[in-house]
Amino acid sequence: MLNFSKLLKLSTLKTAFKTIEFVFFVAFAILVTVITVLFSTGVLNSHKIDNSLSALKGKEFTEAAPQQPAQPDELDRAMALQNDALAKLKTQEEKFALIETLQNQINTKLTELTLREDKLGRDKAAFEENKAKFQKFIEETFPKADELNYASNLKIFSKMSAKEVAGMFSAWETPTVIRYLKGFKESFSADILTELRKSYKDKSFEVETVLAASTKKPEIK
Description:
Radius of gyration: 58 Å
Oligomer: single chain
Number of strands: 0
Structural class: mainly alpha
Helix content: over 70%
């Protein structure tokens, strides 16, 4: 007859061995996986291991030997060069910013001067236009010397002040002034002739000559 107790023990041992074998296999698989991950992430990189060992050796040597001044490595030199370049760049940027500011100020002044010059030009053009209109009005109001009606024109002048008459004459061309003076000067008052002499002094020799020839200066009533 079969011994059931022996069979049960044998079955238990087989199950235990299979369990141990399974646990060992799983542990081995986990170990392989961990090592693979460490190598792939560079943690167990051979260069880093060598560097770490060199660092440890250097540390031992440094502790054993007297301290030596540290020499800048390539990274330190590169950083120093970069900082120097940044400092120079900042200086250049400040120079460029200053130049740009000055240029903007110059452009603003030029713009202001241009606008002012344009305004003066427009004012001058308006003055010339008004002068031309006034000249046309005078020419239309007072006929030429050979067609003058002295009596009617003297009435017009009599309603004007001496300065107004002188101002009106100053708007005319020199030949027109001379023509009118030859027709009116003996009928002008002393005040009108005085204002005309002031107006044309050192400006027109011809007009001054005509005015100087005047002897009769009755007042216009």
